C-alpha cells in the first residue's frame, strides 16, 4: 500500500525527522486559510500516488494566500498520469540550497534493508541509477544491530555532504530506518532531503510503501488507504478473500493455489497465449467464491477466454462446478471456458458440467491440453472481434 506524501511525512516527523509545517486542503479556500495560518510563501503540492509531480505541474510555489488559493484552484482536479488530484498539501516554502536523496528499501537478494543516498536529489532515483550509478551510495543494515552511526557516516561522506551536517544527517538516516522497520515498510524515501539556505536539513518530500501483508498490525495505516487508486476489481477480490492481480493478457485464469496459478500462467505463455490475471481462489473455495472470482475475471473487457484449473484437495471439484454454473447463469456470458477439474470429487464435478450441456464449455484433463485449448479459443475469439 502506498502512502501519500503528507501521510509519509507525518510518520517521518513522529520519528524526529524535520518536515516543513503544513496542512492538507481539499478546496482552494481551504488552501488559502492554511497559507494565512502559515504566513509567508508556501508551496502547493498535489497529493497523488505517482512520482514526478513537479515536472507534471502538480507543485507550485505561492508568495501569499491569494496566490495559494489560485494555485490550489489550478492543481485540484488536475489529471496527473491518470490520477485526479483531490487533495493538496500546503507547506511553508523552503529555501533550497541543495537536494539529497535518502531511501530505505528491502534488498531481497542481500536479505537486508539497504539505505541508499545520493547527492543527486530531487530527480527520480531510477534515473540516477541508470545514468550515474556510482552516484548512489548504499549500506546494508544488520537486522539485529540496526543502522550504525558509522554506516550513516559512510553515506554522508559518499555523497560529499558538508561535515557540519553530518550529525543531523545521521539522525535523519537512523529515524528513517526506524520508521521503515516499525511500520513494516517495503520502501521509505525522502526525495529531496534538502539543505536549506538557513543551513537546516529538512525532508521536503516523502514516500512510504507499506507491506500489505502487515496491515493487520497497523490498523491506523490501513485506514489511510487511498481507495481511489486501487483497481476496483482488486478491491472486490480483497473483500471476497481472493488473491487477484490484473494483467494485460486475454486469457482469464481461475486457479486454486498460488503455485498452481503461477504454473498455469507459465504454461499459457508457453503455448503462445497471455494471461489476463493471476487469481488464486484459495483452498476450500465455496460456490459463492467461485462466482465472485468469475465476475471479477469477466469484468475485464480484454478477456477472450477463461481457463479454470482446479486441483481438488480441500477444494471440491463439484463445489467449483456448481459455482461455475451459478456464475454462468447469473452473468449470462457466452465466452469460451476451458475447465480442468482433477482431484477430490472430480467425477461429480465433471458430471455436473456435462449435465448442464453448455456449448461454450470445453473440458480438459491435462494442464497442457487445457492451456492449448484456452489459447486456441482466445485466438478464435480475437479473429471474430477483428472481422466484426
Ligand atoms: P515530486 O516531483 O513528485 O517528487 O515532488 P517533490 O515534493 O519532490 O517536489 C519536486 C521539486 O519541487 C523538488 O525537488 C524541489 O525542487 C521543488 N520544491 C518542492 N518544495 C519546494 C519548496 O518549498 N521550495 C522550493 N523552492 N522548491 C520546492
Ligand atoms: Mn520527490
Outline of the structure:
The chain is of the alpha+beta class and about 400 residues long. It has helices at about 5-15, 30-40, 65-75, 125-130, 150-160, 165-180, 220, 230-240, 260-270, 285-300, 315-330, 345-355, 365-385, and strands at about 1-5, 20-25, 40-45, 60, 80, 85, 90, 95-105, 110-120, 135-140, 185-195, 200-205, 205-210, 245, 250-255, 275-280, 305-310, 335-345, 360-365.
Account of the 3D structure:
- The protein has 388 residues and is α+β, with helices and mostly antiparallel strands.
- It has 13 helices and 19 strands.
- Helix 5 (149-158) packs across helix 6 (166-182) and helix 10 crosses helix 11 (317-331).
- 41% of the residues are buried.
- The model has no long low-confidence stretch (mean pLDDT 93).
Layout of strands and helices, then pairs:
Elements lengths: L1 E2 L1 H10 L7 E4 L2 H11 L3 E5 L12 E4 L2 H11 L3 E2 L2 E2 L3 E5 L3 E12 L4 E7 L6 H7 L4 E6 L7 H10 L7 H17 L2 E12 L4 E3 L3 E4 L8 H4 L9 H9 L2 E4 L4 E5 L2 H13 L6 E4 L6 H12 L6 E8 L4 H15 L5 E7 L2 H11 L4 E3 L3 H21 L1
Parallel strand pairs: 15-17, 17-18, 18-19
Antiparallel strand pairs: 1-13, 2-7, 3-4, 3-7, 5-6, 8-9, 8-11, 9-10, 11-12, 11-13, 14-16
Helix pairs in contact: 2-3, 5-6, 8-10, 10-11, 11-12
The structure holds guanosine-5'-diphosphate and manganese (II) ion.
